[in-house]
Design a protein that fits this description.
The complex is a heterotetramer, with two copies of chain A (357 residues) and two copies of chain B (618 residues). Chain A has 357 residues and is α/β, with parallel strands linked by helices. Chain A has helices at 6-13, 40-50, 89-99, 111-117, 119-128, 173-179, 193-205, 227-230, 235-238, 288-295, 324-339, 344-349, and strands spanning 61-65, 80-83, 104-110, 133-138, 141-142, 148-149, 184-189, 210-215, 239-241, 249-250, 256-261, 264-269, 311-318, 353-356. In chain A, helix 2 (40-50) packs across helix 7, helix 3 packs parallel to helix 11 and helix 6 packs antiparallel against helix 10 (288-295). Chain B is an alpha/beta fold. Classes of the chains: A alpha/beta (357), B alpha/beta (618). The complex binds thiamine diphosphate (TPP) (2 copies), iron/sulfur cluster (2 copies) and magnesium ion (2 copies).
Chain lengths: 357, 618, 357, 618
């Protein structure tokens, strides 16, 4: 008793693709058309590099994007792809994933696409926990439309549409994702390709919506927005890498740490022997309260101040939870199990009929 | 007193009461019994706009009209012959719909001071007493009291007793129209299997209502409506929304593909979501999305994956889908957009009917983005139209608008349901896998019908990318080439036009294929126009009726047909939309008859308007 | 130097309304048409009662709603009002507030209106901190469309559209609001009118977007959804009222409290003398981490379990922050100050002209 | 060699190079100098779709075409006379736009192996060498090397030197066309006040380019284009988007109300947001919303509060606004929707032009929801059209669509700018405060133009509620009454129609008021149609040109005018939209000439098509 359709038959009939992929196998025949030097290139590279490792056949992978510079991504992947409309990739991916749960689906979206026009679908994707990977290319600007400030741009941003500086309070994408009950919330950056690669693989292996924010430099309209994290000189004091079960350590010589004083995170120094590793905040990606606190490590106080909080990179939060797509299909299977595959003629007859002679 | 039995060709009854009075159920039960008796029948439920307006007030009135007969019945009736009113608000709201000389059956407890005040008659101004109803036959029955008496020994609660008073009315009407009680009795037994005492109570009241008619002397006449001459076969009663659901499910089945339904609730489309969500064992997945944009987008996603993507809405919700439908036009994927039209603009009058979204379906997107448009004519025809919409969407890889409306959605008719074996096949052609073929896969290569193939994820060797940017012919790559854009624009139009090759030619529904005037309609006005035309023909007018189901593309012979008439008259429940398309396409000086009142045409008003137009001409 | 328009003149010319209002003055001539027994009635009553206390002239008050049962609210208020379209009240209110910052604006919205179709505008309203009061009537169902489950409905909800039970993971409105950086996040219920009234007044006095979630019973489609909080019998164990600076105490005899064990809130009993008030979590509405934890006090463990967390009512979070509407107008005033009121003729001329003779 | 100077009536030059080559600036500077010289001029910039496609590739080519003359110039020219190409990709992308016999000025360093490969010519296939350009006059100049030499002693960085090579070309062209350098020099000095060494470098290169022309022998001719006969007065150069901004600001000023602009960026509309955001001291508030729905909604909110609400977008963004525009129709508030049309459907070709959203503006909402539609004809006319759109929105309390397009938006023309004192007043009539009057305030009471009053919050005594549900006439209360719905539907239509009383009558733009054929256009096709018609008239054809600015309602006399011609021909950059409205409204068998290539009509193709239609007739 099943509901086998010609999709199933069709798919089964295809000879399976060769699985000895290299990154190059995922590069399509289309010329890549981002601005030279754009951070999108490294991200593309890392995604292509990660693909052979996820163990999925090429034909079972789909990249879906909205509109924006980032959203051109699918064209460059030699997989199935859809470059859809602005802000709606999450909704399209939801429909595809529910109806084809076996596919590996990757949503590619910019900060405007995800958090401006697409905020609603993004919220609902996250809370439903549809099992897709969501890569949010955050460059704090609208690239494709040539440089207006975006919802993640810090207030005061001078842009084409804010000649006197923006007065919007920026969206914090990770706080938002946690508030929306996202089950996997992580951050990476274009300029640390190794870490980015790890994060892509972690996102892939997480069951549920894996939301990975990637700081991406827009060299043309917002160059240097993340320089303090990507520049090897400032990175040690400005960034902290999260490792499950490990203390929060950073600094040029790993001499700094973060400690919880009650509910207040504080930067401490391990130089003068007052504090050691054992006193520090141990990262626990299952702790939602901690994750929420981490998501708010944002540019305070000013650079240079020794209490300045570093920006966390890595997996802030990960929890196992039902996935919407799995549950939908489980529910359907359950009904089929109980009631059998529906009989169309019975359905057409309905409950009550009469005969006219 | 001897009760006379009269034979009637057709009768229209309207049940009206407070939302809590069970008028919809009463109407449905009468409908079922009547259909089982072999009459032809059409119904029109009318709901209040509020969920539950304060009891006893005019906004809280719910009503159900049914029209049955021994002749062909195509409308729920213009004015009613019998108006049942459970309270004074119901009378106030509905009196204008009763013909002069008609019968009012009034529940007198609904005309106490409190109710009179609530209905804003004023407590000293009882219409049953002030002589204002002298044009009608008023039959006063204290339904509330009689029901209570009937159940005084039942042990049922006050609330349960109150709730069964509609059965008294139903019994009474059954007696009046010589209907048997058995189907209603078995319905009640089934509905209340778990509460047999309630079933028994209801049945008792039903019978007492029947006997009340028999034994009291308030009624001078009963009526017999003989069996109608309707085609032999097995029938069921069906509403438009139900039939729509069946049409979709059947088409997906005939193509052996899953049906993915993404929707966001809205009146009067929600029932489609409700019904489909119960059909999980029919290859149906329903997704209640966060909004209409997500609803249509999810359907597009599913269509990309090989499902029939369907979305439904009404009014403002349809407007919100426009951008994504444009994407589907570019992607060339099977998508059905069900628009159960309601009265607009903006939020408008959600519970009322209208057919004012035709031009929106045709033109309501940015750029040149032609789609297919299909409209059902009757509740049962929703099955065929939904089936056809799905078939065309799948076989032609194209978005199809299905334009039903509130009147079809909730109205019902006897339906000679089809059998699966009689249904068309729906041909799905998935692009096959490739194993290292030399020639590259061309996602936008087309067959002779200009249809591209359905190349779904999971198929090795045909990985490709689609999107909303203009695509290069054949390769589907992004292209800004001027000539390519012209070519693709033309192709998108031509592939719609080509569908005309495979749809049925237009038939003349009633009347000759030439004459003084043809009434051209579409959608839910079918019954009214058909009845009007047939009556006009009997009166000697040279008129015909053409009803268009395929609105884009039009059937190939439509222009030819129209040219055979001196006048083209287009009745629509809008300010003139099809009429514009006809003028533009066929250069005919078509004239509109337009009604925008949230209500279907009355046959009489239609006939009057046609006569006026015909006389103007002379 | 100013930009005085005829709006200013027009408004100044009007004789000020009489300010000796009673609640009744705020009742319009329209019949109230919710179902008898609907929770909306009490809320309407409390809003009308609160109005005379806010010290604003009737003509300066505007109620804006989307679509839904709740959204009919403006018709019943004898103020200015707009019953707009589904989900967009926040955006409409933003436009009105920016352009008329002196008005007192109240957004009325349902759980579907706010969190389903309107989620995006709600997010952006909150993060921008537009100075409006937002009353979210949460009945965990779509009332107006007759009973489909809503995004706040707990999973498993059987509704018209989910005959086999819903499988959506519910949105947590307050977590969402905090994730969206809302500056005022509070909760009340229809059946505690006194507290509701206080909350309405608190919301009004907060500068910025005041988001007040109100549990509202839909007697027809979701009766009893909040009964455990509203029923006087279960309320003491199921609800905890938050008071600034006060410990989190609840229970039939106020014998229970909530204590922070590290980052983990625990229910403790003060009966056996192990814990006293001094050991408890002291409510601090300025602490965002605590607020976030409070927002997640959700039905765990099962009722009856003595560790069951009560649902918090009151102000979870309140912070002072720039309001978008004020800043917009401050920025405009600044430019006018610096540049003077623009000269149209100069603007029309542009920078470079030439004369043809 | 003696250089001959030739007099030309008009010349079309196209500058093309990599996005980084500064072609837009070069074009603009040439334009300014030329305008200052008294020529009539039109321009057409073309941007690559990518922000910065890889250097040297065809997708990365940016170009700027300008057409100037001593006669009336109404288009940027069909084919160009001179094509400047900074690299081989620029040649590849633009060669088809050069007339046979035209001049190619090629920067030879852009034709090295690397560039030839990038342009996909292949490194051994240099078009400058392989004889493929034998139909043209090719002038090779090693601009890159010459610039470097020119600045070898300047101390400027490599990058700065590279960046000034466009000045060499500009200088060369100035010499060719006998233009003075002074305005460009003063521009450079101003632009680089803070970096005088760069200003000096650029000026040197400019002059060296000029002298290169003078001293080398590569050029056989120079050209003189005399002053044009354009109306006396003071002019500035203006693009369509700039003029739109000015029109809005001026209208709000003339009404003395604030302008609230809610928008979400999209090509090619974004510049309007950019420009307006800098005008904070003009009573302008700009709000970059989270999406198009919020953008239009915020504008509606502001309009409720007494501001002129304006929103702008293009393509898919306009589709998204449909639902909210329907609300504004119901609310009867002043709202202007700027649609800077681009090539569709869906995302389409965002950087290309089209006029395919007319029917969407007319019909793209649920229900019967008529709006006003106005379209500018030229960049400068965007001022008048935006002013009129705003004036009508305010004075008639109604949403108005303003349909510009990418071609108008970015194209420029000399504009005889108006003075404030010559502008119309815009009459704002706020409902006055009430002080306990007996008669209740009726928000939907109307004046003789069927306009309701603008009753803004803050006004004592007129508190009232509006909304998207159908409203009762006068009171504005919610109403489901059938007759009221008909009445309101009619009123909403009539109040649009009544606007025809106050707009100018339609004029015949060129030609007689009767004849064989009239070309009826709207929007940005103005220049092409006007030029074509004038040329056809000279050739002896009996044709005229009518250009419609007010598309809904049409001017009252339009039908009359059309009836005076045997044929009505409607050229449009779409598949036929105005033509449908004309057929439907006036029953004329209008014919379309349609081009959907993302590019304006060429005068010659238009003339050809008209001739074909006229000959068919005979
Ligand atoms: C409905 C719609 N609105 C607006 C646009 C214009 N648009 C395209 S991309 C974009 C924003 C891009 O920003 P982001 O998502 O951050 O991507 P980026 O370009 O920075 O990678 C906008 C506003 C559009 N294409 N469609
Ligand atoms: C664009 C649009 N989509 C859908 C609807 C139908 N609709 C009206 S109200 C509503 C949901 C109401 O739920 P909620 O906001 O929770 O309000 P409640 O009725 O429960 O107070 C829906 C789906 C609509 N009016 N407009
Ligand atoms: S504009 Fe910015 S984000 Fe877009 S491609 Fe260029 S550098 Fe990258
Ligand atoms: S349906 Fe529910 S929410 Fe709506 S009015 Fe009735 S009780 Fe209230
Ligand atoms: Mg971005
Ligand atoms: Mg609700």
């Amino acid at each position: 008793m099943s509901l086998e359709t010609i999709i199933d038959l069709h798919i089964k009939n295809g000879a399976p693709g060769d699985m000895n992929y290299t990154g190059k196998d995922f590069s399509s025949d289309q010329d890549v058309r981002w601005c030279p030097g754009c951070g999108d290139y490294t991200i593309l590279k890392q995604v292509q590099t990660a693909m052979p490792e996820i163990g999925v056949k090429k034909e079972d992978i789909v990249f879906i994007s909205g509109i924006g510079c980032a959203a051109r991504f699918p064209y460059y992947m030699d997989t199935f792809g859809m470059h859809s409309i602005h802000g709606r990739a999450a909704a399209i991916a939801t429909g595809l994933k529910i109806s084809r749960p076996e596919l590996s689906i990757w949503v590619i979206s910019g900060d405007g696409d995800s958090l401006s026009i697409g905020g609603n679908h993004f919220l609902h994707l996250l809370r439903r926990n549809v099992n897709v990977n969501y890569l949010l290319f955050n460059n704090q600007v609208y690239g494709l439309t040539k440089g207006q400030y975006s919802p993640t741009a810090p207030s005061g941003s001078v842009s084409k549409s804010t000649p006197y500086g923006s007065i919007d309070h920026a969206v914090n994408p990770l706080s938002f994702a946690l508030g929306a009950d996202g089950s996997f919330v992580a951050r990476a950056m274009d300029r640390d390709p190794k870490h980015l690669n790890q994060m892509i693989l972690r996102a892939n292996s997480h069951r549920g919506t894996s939301m990975l924010e990637i700081y991406q430099n827009c060299i043309v309209f917002n160059d240097g927005a993340f320089e303090r994290f990507t520049d090897k000189k400032t990175r040690p004091v400005e960034a902290v890498y999260l490792e499950q079960g490990e203390p929060l350590i950073f600094g040029e010589k790993n001499e700094k740490g973060i400690r919880l004083d009650g509910l207040v995170p504080k930067v401490v120094s391990m130089k003068n022997g007052e504090f050691s590793k054992d006193d520090l905040w141990i990262h626990d990606e299952k702790d939602k309260t901690k994750a929420y606190m981490l998501s708010r490590f944002f540019d305070q106080p000013e650079p240079g101040d020794e209490n300045r909080m570093p920006r966390p990179f890595g997996v802030l939060f990960a929890e196992e939870r039902f996935c919407y797509d799995e549950e939908v299909n489980r529910q359907i299977a359950g009904v089929v199990e109980r009631k059998g595959v529906g009989n169309l003629d019975e359905l057409l007859r309905g409950r009550e009929t009469w005969i006219v002679k | 007193m001897q009760v006379k039995d009269q034979v009637r060709d057709d009768v229209t009854i309207r049940f009206a009461g407070d939302s809590g009075d069970g008028m919809q159920l009463t109407g449905s039960l009468f409908t079922n019994t009547t259909a089982l008796q072999g009459n032809d029948i059409r119904t029109l439920p009318e709901f209040p706009a509020e969920i539950r307006a304060p009891i006893g007030t005019v906004p809280g009135v719910s009503s159900f009209q049914l029209h049955f007969g021994s002749k062909e019945i195509m409308t729920p009736g213009d004015e009613c012959d019998v108006l049942v009113v459970m309270n004074s608000a119901a009378l106030k709201a509905n009196l204008s719909l009763l013909r002069k000389g008609g019968i009012i059956i009034a529940n007198t407890s609904g005309f106490d001071k409190k109710n009179l005040n609530l209905a804003k008659y004023g407590e000293d101004n009882n219409p049953l007493e002030n002589g204002s109803l002298s044009d009608y036959i008023v039959i006063e029955v204290d339904v509330t009291r009689l029901t209570k008496e009937s159940l005084s020994d039942s042990g049922l609660s006050y609330k349960d007793i109150e709730r069964s008073k509609n059965m008294f009315v139903l019994g009474l009407l059954y007696w009046m129209y010589n209907r048997p009680l058995d189907s209603t009795i078995s319905f009640l037994n089934q509905k209340f299997t778990k509460k047999p005492e309630i079933a028994q109570g209801n049945i008792k009241v039903l019978k007492d209502g029947y006997h009340y008619g028999e034994t009291t002397e308030v009624f001078a006449e009963t009526y017999t409506v003989k069996k109608a001459q309707i085609g032999a076969g097995e029938y069921r009663s069906i509403t438009g929304n139900e039939a729509t659901v069946l049409g979709l499910v059947a088409a997906a089945r005939q193509g052996n593909i899953p049906l993915f339904f993404g929707s966001y609730p809205i009146t009067p489309a929600s029932d489609i979501l409700h019904e489909l969500s119960a059909l999980k064992n029919f290859g149906v997945t329903t997704f209640q999305a966060e909004d209409e944009i997500a609803a249509v987008s999810s359907a597009i996603g599913a269509a990309f994956g090989g499902s029939l993507g369907v979305t439904s809405s009404s009014g403002p919700g349809i407007a919100l889908k426009a951008e994504a439908v444009g994407l589907a036009v570019m992607l060339e994927l099977p998508l059905v957009i069900l628009n159960i039209q309601r009265a607009g603009p903006s939020t408008g009058m959600p519970t009322k009917t209208e057919q004012s979204d035709l031009l929106q379906a045709m033109y309501g997107r940015n750029g040149e983005s032609p789609v297919v448009i299909i409209a059902p004519a009757t509740p049962g025809d929703c099955f065929d139209a939904a089936f056809e919409a799905s078939r065309i969407a799948i076989e032609h890889m194209i978005p199809v608008y299905f334009l039903s409306d509130g009147y079809l959605a909730n109205g019902s008719e006897p339906w000679k349901f089809p059998q699966q074996k009689g249904l068309k096949k729906v041909n799905v052609r998935f692009e096959p896998a490739r194993n290292g073929e030399d020639n590259p896969f061309l996602p936008y290569a087309r067959d002779e019908r200009l249809v591209r193939s359905w190349a779904i994820p999971g198929t090795p060797g045909i990985e490709h990318r689609v999107g909303g940017l203009e695509k290069e012919a054949e390769t589907g790559n992004v292209s800004y080439d001027p000539d390519n854009h012209q070519l693709m624009t033309n192709l998108r139009k031509e592939r719609v036009d080509k569908i005309a090759d495979s749809i049925p030619l237009q038939q003349v529904d009633s009347g000759k294929d030439h004459g003084d005037a043809v009434l051209v309609g579409w959608g839910s006005t079918y019954g009214s126009i058909r009845t009007a035309v047939r009556e006009l023909m009997v009166e000697g007018y040279s008129v015909s009726h053409v009803h268009i189901k395929y609105l884009n593309p039009f059937p190939k012979n439509l222009g030819e047909i129209l040219n055979n008439f001196d006048q083209v008259i287009v009745p629509e429940m809008n300010s003139g939309q099809l009429v514009k398309l006809l003028r533009d396409t066929f250069f005919v000086p078509a004239k509109g008859i337009n009604k925008v009142k949230g209500r279907p045409f009355f046959v009489d008003e239609l006939k009057q308007e046609v006569k006026t137009i015909l006389s103007e001409k002379v």
